[in-house]
Structures are given as C-alpha cells and as structure tokens.
Amino acid sequence: MSQESRQASRQELHAVEWADDGLLLIDQTLLPDRLERLRVTDVDTLVDAIRRLVVRGAPAIGVAGAYGVALALRQAERAGWDRTALLAAIARIREARPTAVNLAVCVDRVLPLLDQGPDAVLAEAHAVLREDEQANRTMAGHGADWLVKRVGALRPLRLLTHCNTGALATAGWGTALGVIRELHARDLVEVVYADETRPLLQGSRLTAWELAHDGIPHYVQADGAAAGTILRGEVDAAVVGADRVAANGDTANKVGTVAVALACAEAGIPFLVAAPTTTVDLATASGEGIHIELRGEDEVLEWGGLRTAPAVSRGHNPAFDVTPGRLVTALVTERGVLEVAAGQLPADHLHGP
Questions:
Q1: Which one, of 71, 74, 51, 76, lies nearest residue 61 by Cα?
Q2: Is the pTM of this model over 0.85?
Q3: What domains are there in the chain, each with its CATH number?
Q4: Catalytic residue among 27, 195, 243, 281
Q5: Of 135, 352, 158, 124, nearest to 241 (Cα)?
Q6: Neighbouring-strand partners of residue 330
Q7: Which of 26, 182, 212, 325 would staple 144 via disulfide (CB 3.0–4.6 Å)?
C-alpha cells in the first residue's frame, strides 16, 4: 500500500470532489496499488472517466453527472459553443452509462438551472452531493436496525456483499457497505465475505480496500464460491447495492448478484438491497424494461493484456443482471425499509406519507 493509501485509511474517502473549477475523481482503475485523483475540466475527459470506470457506482456517477453539466457550461463559454453543441455535450454525459438511473436523474435535476449559468448549476450539484452522503448515512441506520431485528444481535453477524458499494461508489459513506460499516460501528460484524466481482474485480480491488480501510474482518472469495458459502450456513445475510430498482421491486445490480439472491432464498436468509431513492425508477415497470449494458469482450477474454481464451472464442460480458423482486427480502433507502418479497413495492414507499 502506498504512503497516500495509508494516509487515506485515516480519513473519510470521497470519490467525487469539486476543487478549483474542476472535478477530482479517485481513479478506481488504479486501486488498490495506487491512490491517485484524476482532474477533470472538460466533457470528453468526464465521459471517458465514466465509461472506463475511473468513477463508478450509481450514486457516484450521478453526482459526477450533475457536476458535469457545470463543466459543460464552463467549456461552452471557453470554446464558444452554441446551445445545440452544449446540449449535445450534456446528452453525452447523461448517456455515458445506460443501466444506472442515477446518472440521468442527477443530470436532469440540474438542467432546469442551465440558463442561470454555471454557478447556479454548481450550487445544485453541491446539493446533490450533500444529499447523497446524508441519504447513505440514514439508510445505513435503517438497514442495520432491520438486520438486527430480523437476524438478531446475540452475536456479531457474518455478512456477504457483491461488488463495491462503499464510499468509492457514492458521495460518501456507502449504500450496502454503509450498512455494514454501521453494523461494524456497533460491534456487530464478525466477518464479511466480499465477492471478487469478475471481470474487473471491484470486490477484491475496491471493497476489500475499503474494508481494510475501516478495519473490518473480511475474506475475498471467487464469485462462484458465494452460493456454496451461503448454503453451508456460513452467512447470516447478504447486503448488496443496486444500479436501478424497477417499480415492481426488480433490481439491477452487478452481474452475479442474482446468483447470490437465489442462494439466499434457498438458504432462507435475508437478501437486503440498499440504494438511495434516486436509484428507484418508477417509470420502469419491471426488470424487463431495464437496459443491461454490454461491455467490451476483451474484459472476459483477456487478463492483463494477455489473451486467456482461444482466438476463436467470443466474449459475453453483461455488466449487470436483474434480481426478481420476489427474491429481494428487503429494500432499504433513506426513507426506510420495504419488505419487497412480502409485497411492499417501491412505488408505495415513494408515494407514501
């Protein structure tokens, strides 16, 4: 671990920050070996950073998208863009990753302020960031309370998580990993099983790095080991995040999540999804309407630039899968907990008192 990485372990992580008229993004493609920040001052660099997963996680790319509108306005002023060119640049940001709904939601939130100039857009983007971190901390409390009530607190819990849902994936604190951090603060975590998350290893590179950052005991395991770990009775609950939640409770998350949900259902243990309300997409009726991003074939056909499959092999590389709502024991947001498998749906939650 580098000296900067050791220093980061003593302070809160912020994946997305605004400083000196530009964005600072923790370059998550370099972790855990190096902790470096990429400075972003133009639309091309931001779109590339989102697509390459320099910044990733639905809430984090949503915040980056909101700031991206301010970047686009400033670039338009420098370059003399007309309105058409400006809107085209903003559309490129909005569409940089199609599955996570937060990106479009956060861009759309700041768009009405476009004619008021970059300072007004920037102020609203700051609000998006503050609200996301506060929502994460609130949902962490709700999720921890629900798990303690559901599973019991006679001993610390053995938890499983898939992909990265911590401070690196959000404006701060985290969603599913935020719930785990809250339980750890209550001395209620025995161990966390972190799935490695093929093909880009967000679990072993990022989640394990954050767990080490917080001093939380953990194992990294192959994705294919998760179901067996659950069925052997070594896990009390699985806690995962989401990139989009449909109105019927179907949930899109990192590919491999649905296998965890199926194993939890077979084992009779809770499968908890933690996500802010900005991730709930009431305009999408079910998981069938969620666009699943297909990434480049080389991510599964190569490793470290070396071919690991026969030359004639093709690569199938969906970045996400959809877990049916009937397998989601509960959905926790900043507004509380819905027991989705029992028939409580996101629409009721968001439209309730």
A1: 51
A2: yes
A3: 3-131 (1.20.120.420), 138-351 (3.40.50.10470)
A4: 243
A5: 135
A6: 272
A7: 182
